[in-house]
Amino acid sequence: MVYNALTGAFVKLENDEYEKYTAVKFSNTETDKKLLKNLKKGGFILSEDFDELALVEDRYNKIKDDNRVLHIVISPTMKCNLACIYCYQDRDRFNKYPFMSQEVQNRLTAFVENLIVDNSEDVKILNVIWYGGEPLLAFPILNDLSENFMNICKEFEVEYSADMVTNGTLISPRMAERLSHLRLRKFQITLDGDAETHDKKRIYRNGKGTFTQILRALKILASYDDFGISLRINVDETAKRAIDKLLDILERQKLKNHLSPYFSRLTEYRHSSHIWKCYIHNFREYSDIEQYLYEKIVERGFRLENYPFPRYLPCDAVRKYSNISVDPEGFIYKCFNEIGFKERAVGHVNSGFSEDVQKWLSYSPFQFDDCIICKFLPICMGGCPLLAMKGKKECTPLRYNFEKLLQLFYKRKDDLKLLKECSVVMGGESS
After folding, report:
1. For residue 60, what pLDDT band results from cuts at 50, 70 and 90?
2. Can you give the pTM of this predicted structure?
3. C-alpha dist (Å) from residue 83 to 87, 209, 233, 239
4. Residue range 406-418: average pLDDT?
5. Domains in the chain, please, with CATH?
6. CA–CA separation, 153 vs 112, rounded Å?
7. What angle, 0 to 180 degrees and rounded to 10, lies between the N-to-C axes of helices 102-118 and 139-155?
8. Neighbours of 138 (CB within 10 A)
9. How far apart are the C-alpha atoms of 13 and 406, rounded to whole Å?
10. 410: which residues sit within 8 A by CB, 6+ positions away?
């Protein structure tokens, strides 16, 4: 099996095909012509003077200037009804934040409209991600802004879509119906294991666990065909012990085919609880645990959707009109991890972007010598820009578990539409 990070292509070669490939010796038969054509298409065979690094850098620069999609993250409130022990946000501070005022809502609406008008020849899609705090605590604000954005998009013939990062505790059948009307399509919700494990970490302010309520929310959302659910599972040292119990529950609740689990390392932030001793600080250790968890996902027949696409950008924050994150007071940030820390803002909806945005727009992974010689560059693009700008650049866990991850995708090739759609070349027979 051969994978190409430049194109995302993944192909299975028989022994004789592999020998021809490595020797670059093909006969004039129709079979070999087809094999050669597919290998070229997938980027497995290139002319000697082809500069792959130049291609990666060129498409990086082009996509940075692509304004077809306006991507805006909005926090109508920084308040949250939970007190998760590992939260990176300063809950004591953020729970005192005001809800977004009517004046800021009006300014934000005008700001978004101006972005569309100023880029009217380019903009085709407005995508909003509702964030917080817990965004559903401010549902009336979310509702009014959504209506405003949908009206603007209708006027200027721009497609509108919306996603949400929510803890799920406020989702009811009535709320789900309203969110569907507001064109919410994707939800990120977190379960950190079975009830016993989860309820030690994701809790209400009174200390009560949230597992039962979140599971109910997943079942409500799963009843809608047009909703997509990304189930985030934060990984610490307890994850391996809890994964089978969690998957058992999801199967019993008939959620297996309605959500896509993915894993993320539980990071200890300045505002996290330091009483919790299960954080994983060693990246190699994390990659081993992550691999074990993804093997469980495949073994149990759950969706596997973290195929290593070429990324083109490390994240949308390096584009001026993407990852525009707005807090309840109208301050603009380029990373949602910085929302609420006004000293890190790069503008305001009243006045637009400040000069501080330039540090994001001028960021480039090609300034790092170790990145430009790394075979993972096209699927990592230097990792998180925020960490890199803070001098804490991290490599992708794929450095340690990449081959095993690809083997998992190969096992799921027959029933995983995502892999078939993203691959330029797909095995079996090099076709």
Report:
1. very high
2. 0.91
3. 8, 10, 17, 20
4. 71
5. 2-61+371-422 (no CATH), 67-299 (3.20.20.70)
6. 10
7. 30
8. 22
9. 15
10. 1, 10, 12, 427
